[in-house]
Amino acid sequence: MIKKILDKGFIEVVDKMGTDLTVANSARVSFGKRKEKFDDNDRKLIKFLAKNKHWSPFRHLMVQFHIKAPEFVMRQWYKHVVGIETTSNSAVKDHAWNEISGRYVPVSDFYVPENWRKQSLDNKQASEGSIADQKKAGEIFNHAMENFLNAYKELLDLGVAKEQARMILPLNQYTEVYWTASFQAIMNFIDLRDEDTAQWEIRQYAVAIKEIMLEIYPETTGIWFEVKT
Ligand SMILES: Cc1cc2nc3c(=O)[nH]c(=O)nc-3n(C[C@H](O)[C@H](O)[C@H](O)COP(=O)(O)OP(=O)(O)OC[C@H]3O[C@@H](n4cnc5c(N)ncnc54)[C@H](O)[C@@H]3O)c2cc1C
User: Fold this and answer.
1) What is the spatial distance between Cα 116 and Cα 57, in angstroms, rounded to a whole number?
2) Is position 69 within any domain?
3) Into how many domains does the chain fold?
4) In angstroms, what is the span from residue 24 Cα to ligand 1's centroid?
């Protein structure tokens, strides 16, 4: 399952663990019981768990994503440090990130926005609408990109190491990561990144992940959002 995002990005499910029944069965072990087929009682149980903040059963569902996103998006994403579970007393221990290395692979893709947004007046970190002179913004951007890319290529041609030459590249360079996270951590990501104050670009990824989660865990994801809204 792969979804295209922005001009050259994507998000793909590499692997997943568990089904909707996993959540109910993880809670049901308390009574020494396990079911083989999902039914309305499981729906009720999952709703009860979500409503009453019994979140550990939701952490038995895990998804491994392959993400291609601009570096400035991934810098926001890296702040979501809980990859495996939330009970560890060390956030760093829970990291489940692996990333393509610009020390091995020359950087080749860069994000080009379709719309140059205006600085928001009431939220200092946000944007809104579009600036009037889209053409001029595009020209300034293209000119800068040409200089960056030429300088990068020239440094590489001179024999400078990729690990150093990349220092000249801007944050719109695309990177690729594998991110493995629990259902709970993914819902937290959607909660924080699919909302009005999140940057438009990362929001596109959050919207896609929400669609993916509704496809792979339809009952659990549906109930989660029903309870939260
Ligand atoms: C609109 C917006 C603007 C932002 N602006 C900035 C900014 O300017 N600068 C900046 O640095 N960051 C910024 N952030 C990032 C933000 O501060 C969080 O780091 C990020 O959203 C990750 O959220 P989280 O900690 O809930 O996620 P996760 O790391 O996935 O954590 C998930 C949940 O696990 C629990 N948890 C996590 N770690 C631990 C722990 N060690 N012990 C116990 N429980 C834990 C918490 O309940 C947490 O909510 C911004 C985020 C948003 C959405």
Assistant:
1) 43
2) yes
3) 2
4) 27
